[in-house]
Amino acid sequence: MRIERFRWWHIAEVLPIEDDLFGAEKWSPAMFWNELAQHNFYVVAVDEELLGYAGLAANDGEAWVQNIAVRRTAQRRGVGRRLLETLLGEAGRRGIKQTLLEVAVDNAPAQHLYATYGFEPVGIRRGYYQPSNTDALVMMRDA
């Protein structure tokens, strides 16, 4: 598996993963285009196919993990871990002091992964994910 920069041509490959994992709450192509246009740091994990993707938005010493998604057939094989490590490495290179993220309150596997990298719960965003009205747990990690 190799990690590469996410480029515009990857958008078509990530859309089916978005649809499968997030359904009605999936990101649109325009949302990915916007992230790339803002020069946020996005990467893909690739083997024979695109396995997953992740993004980081950073400014003023703070970064937000925008998303980490791994194709169902590639889950539990270390892909999410590698993607997260890549984002945290980039945050370190940029001198980021705090990295934050939002994760669904019912996504225990993702919360466990984040906790192993030093993320701790700092708040709840009620009804954050729409249309399911699922709460988001906000987690933070100091550099």
UniProtKB/TrEMBL annotation:
Domain N-acetyltransferase: 1-143
Gene Ontology MF term list: protein-N-terminal-alanine acetyltransferase activity
Record's keyword terms, sorted: Acyltransferase, Cytoplasm, Transferase
Annotated Gene Ontology cellular component terms: cytoplasm
Subcellular locations according to the entry: Cytoplasm
InterPro entries: AcTrfase_RimI/Ard1, Acyl_CoA_acyltransferase, Bact_Acetyltransf, GNAT_dom
Main location: cytoplasm
Catalytic activity as recorded in UniProt: N-terminal L-alanyl-[ribosomal protein bS18] + acetyl-CoA = N-terminal N(alpha)-acetyl-L-alanyl-[ribosomal protein bS18] + CoA + H(+)
EC number of the protein: 2.3.1.266
Domain of life: Bacteria
CDD domains documented for this protein: NAT_SF
Primary role: Acetylates the N-terminal alanine of ribosomal protein bS18.
NCBIfam families noted in UniProt: rimI (TIGR01575)
Family of this protein: Belongs to the acetyltransferase family. RimI subfamily.
Protein name stated in the entry: [Ribosomal protein bS18]-alanine N-acetyltransferase
High-level lineage: Bacteria, Bacillati, Actinomycetota, Actinomycetes, Micromonosporales
